[in-house]
Structure formats: C-alpha cells, structure tokens
Amino acid sequence: MIELIPAIDIIDGKCVRLSQGEYESKKVYNENPLEVAKEIEAHGLKRLHVVDLDGAASRHVVNYRTLDLLAGHTSLTIDFGGGIKTDEDLRIAFDHGAQMVTLGSVAVKEPELFDKWLGIHGNGRIILGADAKEGYIAVNGWKEDSRMELMPFLDRYIRKGVTQVLCTDISRDGMLQGPATELYREIIRTYPDLCLIASGGVSHIDDIRRLDEAGVPAVVFGKALYEGRITLDQLTSFNS
Questions:
Q1: From CA 225, how far away is CA 68, in angstroms rounded?
Q2: What sign for the dihedral angle of Cα 70, 80, 22, 177?
Q3: Closest Cα to residue 238, out of 43, 75, 12?
C-alpha cells in the first residue's frame, strides 16, 4: 500500500501553496500550520512533509520555530526541506524535530557535502530531493535550472547509498493536473528497490490509486487536500 504524506509548505509561519514553484502564486490556506498538522494526525496519518519556502528562497533555514512547534505538539514523523545548505542548517533542522531531511540543491551544488551528511546520518534520515523540469534538475526553490539530467543525477546518488528519493515534476506541482506517473514508472523500472516518493500534480484520490497501482511506494500531496478535492476521510478509508 502506498504511503500517504501530506505536505505543509511554510511562508512567514503560515501554511501556503504555490503553483509550479512561483512565489507570486502564493495562496495562504491556514495561518496556523499546527492546526493543520493536528487534523492530519487525528485522521491516523503518520507522516508529514514540511517545506520551508522562505528557507529555499533565502538559502538558509528560516521557519525552524514552526518546525519545532509541529514536532513538539504532534507525533507525526516529519521530513523537512528548504534552505538546508550548511552543517548549521542541518543541525537546526534535526534539533528542532525533523526526523528526516530532504536535500536537493546541496546534492547538485555541493555533492561532497551531501555525501558527508549521508555518511554521518545514514540513508534512513537523508532523502534526496530530485525536482525535475523538462528532464533536468532545478535548485534553490526551483529558481535555477542546473542543466543536470534527472536519471544520471539519481544514478550517482543511488550508487552512493541513497535509498529514498522525493521526485517532483515541477510543471505539475500545484496545478492539480495529475502526477507524472509514467516518469515514476520509468524510475521504478530502473531502480526497483528505491523508495520513491512521488510529488506534484495530485488532484484527487484516483491519482493516488493510480500511483499505488504503478507500484510507487509513497506520495506527497498538498493543494488537493487544501482545496477540498481530497478529504482526510478519504485518506483514512484508503489506508484501511
């Protein structure tokens, strides 16, 4: 059964969503992310994906107090990303309650640092973030194209010991037009033992069913939940 991972994206301590990573498209859904997290927990979900969008834009962790609040007042397993660029950023994330971190820009721009962190913390706590735009990796809050191709990028880190990859198709993120299922099928065919976390484009519960049928191990979603296209009750029954 596919693992369900709701997402909370944070700007100025508020729960927001963007479309295709464009900050100008910001829509605030709740000024209290803890309220959202507690409702998710109350419906029996276990995981939460938290993105510090201020951190992604600023290139250092910003919303650590919100992370601390979510971790301190729920039992959700939190993976955290956005703005983790230095040893200090990583320490802040773990010290404020992240059980795992998702790292994308560092893996592109400072592969030796990523390798060091993977060696220290292990593949259970380090998730490779692979944000793809037209087959290439994008970094720094999706503001920059790296010109690094997705599949060779994955191959490099899987060979280094990465076992978890969160892959977002940027063109679909926040657009509610369906996930990049064929891309995920290709990744799974190539790396059948990979814990692939699909992200971007989920618009209704049937999208999640199709990902499950395709053998995708986990899925992150947010906007469909906040827009009422998917309900927490549906997610509870899906996993029962």
A1: 23
A2: negative
A3: 43
d(CA 174, CA 171): 9
* pLDDT tens-digit readout, 190-224: 999 999 999 999 999 999 999 999 999 999 999 99
Supply the pTM of this predicted model: 0.93
Give the whole-angstrom CA distance, residue 167 versus residue 5. Answer: 13
Q: Three-state secondary structure along 206-227?
A: HHHHHHHHCCCCEEEECHHHHC
pLDDT higher than 60, residue 141: no
Tokens of 177: 């037009």
Q: What are the pLDDT digits (tens) for 104-140?
A: 989 999 999 999 999 999 999 999 999 888 788 877 5
Q: What is the largest CA-CA distance in the chain?
A: 43
Which residues are part of the catalytic machinery? Answer: 9, 131
Sign, CA dihedral 184-185-191-196, equals positive
In 3D, which of 132, 130, 91, 90 has the Cα closest to residue 107?
130
- Total length of the chain: 240
